[in-house]
Amino acid sequence: MADGTAQGRWRRLRLPGWIGEIVLVVVLYLIYELARGVPDGAQASADHVGRTLLRWEHALHIDPEKWLTVHLDHVTWLAVPASYFYAAAHYVVTPIVLIWLYVRHRHAYTRGRTWLAISTLMSLLIFYLVPTTPPRLLGRGFPDVLKDMSDYGWWGGAGSAPRGLGHLTNQLAAMPSMHVGWALWCGVMIYRSAPYVWVRALGVLYPCVTTIVVISTGNHYLLDTVGGALTMAVGAALTMLAYRLRDRLLGRYRARLAAPDASASEPVEHEQLAAAQNSLHTTRG
After folding, report:
1. Does a structural domain hold residue 193?
2. Is 200 a member of any domain?
3. Distances from the Cα of 118 to the Cαs of 94, 105, 201, 284, in angstroms?
4. Is 32 exposed, middle or buried (0-12, 13-18, 19+ CB in 10 A)?
5. SS3 letters for the chain?
6. Which residue(s) pair with 173 in the sheet?
């Protein structure tokens, strides 16, 4: 028999859960891309931040960017796959991990998706507040590996964006490196959920390779990769706090529903008292 109630109609109209998750992830990605716009007058500030990061790294003796980019730019057979990896890996691997988690490890998917969303939104705020010029656009002897290898791929001089679409991307979003941030997220989720040792090893290897690629192609400073990792760490902490708060509120709500309603028991008590009084009068009579 067909369910004609409002609840039944809602069940028939409601989209399957996986479609809702796809819509959620697509919306998040579109927000990420559209919100990466460069603030007006940001170029000078972004150049200053880039030069400051280089000075800090030089003072700490952790500035491998120029050495790596110069040497990679002269080794085409390495520079081309590195450019492809930078341009495509995070757009391919991250959705694959999300789908795998949703299908095979639903218990890990929900918190993992929330962690990824919170960290990505945090990075957008940092991109807007602290625009940062990547090494390849800063000059100072840094080669632009992706531009030099663009004849072998779909990208032009605007990083991983297809030719002619560079104006749609933010070229001053070096800090934090969300290439590394997303790769770290993928690595953690794979390591936690994969049943095979070799798959977990790939999960560990992926963010390590990503870190080397984004630095050696001149798209990020070493400190950018540290910033990407810290962004994911803060996102993980906020996700944990959010779920603890949710569980606490749900616990209070369920406890309130389970508690007996004192007002509802009052009529029953009055009826019992009246019956006892009537019984007493009858006995006396």
Report:
1. yes
2. yes
3. 15, 20, 26, 75
4. middle
5. CCCCCHHHHHHHHCCCHHHHHHHHHHHHHHHHHHCCCCCCCHHHHHHHHHHHHHHHHHHHCCCCHHHHHHHHHCCHHHHHHHHHHHHHHHHHHHHHHHHHHHHHCHHHHHHHHHHHHHHHHHHHHHHHHCCECCHHHCCCCCCCHHHHCHHHCCECCCCCCECCCHHHCCCCECCCCHHHHHHHHHHHHHHHHCCCHHHHHHHHHHHHHHHHHHHHCCCCCHHHHHHHHHHHHHHHHHHHHHHHHHHHHHHHHHHHHHCCCHHHHHHHHHHHHHHHHHHHHHHHC
6. 132
What the block records as the tokens of 91 is 């757009």
Instruction: Phi first, then psi: give them for residue 165, nearest 5 degrees.
Output: -115, 15
Tokens of residue 228, six digits: 């990407």
- Please report whether residue 11 resides in a domain: no
Supply the range of the domain harboring residue 209.
44-161+169-247
Q: Would you write out the chain's pLDDT as a tens digit for each of its 285 residues?
A: 445 555 454 444 444 565 666 666 666 666 665 555 555 567 888 999 999 999 999 999 999 999 999 999 999 999 999 999 998 898 899 999 999 999 899 889 989 999 999 999 999 889 888 999 999 988 878 998 988 888 887 776 666 555 555 555 667 888 999 999 999 999 999 999 999 999 999 999 999 999 999 999 999 999 999 999 999 999 999 999 998 998 888 887 778 887 765 455 455 555 665 665 565 455 455
Q: How many domains does the chain have?
A: 1
